[in-house]
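pinned: reference chain
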Amino acid sequence: MSPGFFGTMQMRMLRGRGLERSDREGTPGVTVVNESFARRYLAGLDPLGQRITLRGNRYVPTDTGFQFGHLVVGDLEVVGVVSDAKYTSLALPAEPAVYVSSDQFIDRRRALVVRTSLDRPESLVPAIRTELAAIDPQLGAQFAAYPSLVQASLGRERMAMTLLSIFAGITLLLANVGVYGLMTYSVEARTGEMALRSALGASARQVMNLVMGRGMLLAVTGAVLGVAGAVVLRRVLASQLYGVSPLDLPVLVLAPAVLLCVAALACFVPARRATHADPADLLRVE
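pinned: its structure tokens
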């Protein structure tokens, strides 16, 4: 890693210092570790000043790791702790990481990270290619915008969430149709009762309030039970979500609100029709 890597990637230095240009071949080996590394391997210790060795693969010419790079120093002293960064998947926890100066670990293949404020970072590719050619015309390079890499890494999750959203929309639609049909049927089944109350002197508003009150009591009870079920199953949902709480307040409020509005409409329409009809005609039908 070069001295400007952490700043370019907007990784916060939590303890100690970052990698510097003075960390070169022939100087003591140093490293910066991330939070996950410090928690897992240096728990209870002050990370700064600890020495670590890359065991099992020293990256020297006689080892198999030499194809990836050449570690030109021995033990590494931890000189800093940096914030975690995710490299494989946004849905998985950050893995322990060790960062070594590019002058003390000579990579066979390097990645150049360029940060820009331009809306189209791809527009910098010709200029970067020109600079690389000026250094060495034989250098081969592949370019990719970081946002594109992030989007590509989330392709599987986006597909799953798209399908889940479609199924959730269909489920909500079917739930609304079911609630509307059930509430309408339950109100129409009481048409005779409403006609009888009207014939005995009850006003249209009294009948409407009675029907709406009973209907909405059932709807509110169902909504409360549904939210309670979501709370109980939150751990199951949490395994399928990233960056969203399983108890997301807007969702827990919006979905029941939609169903309650549908239930209110389902109660209001047949009740209003019944209260505006002639009670004698309704009783005759009954």
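why pinned: The mean pLDDT is 79. DSSP finds ten helices and seven strands in the chain.
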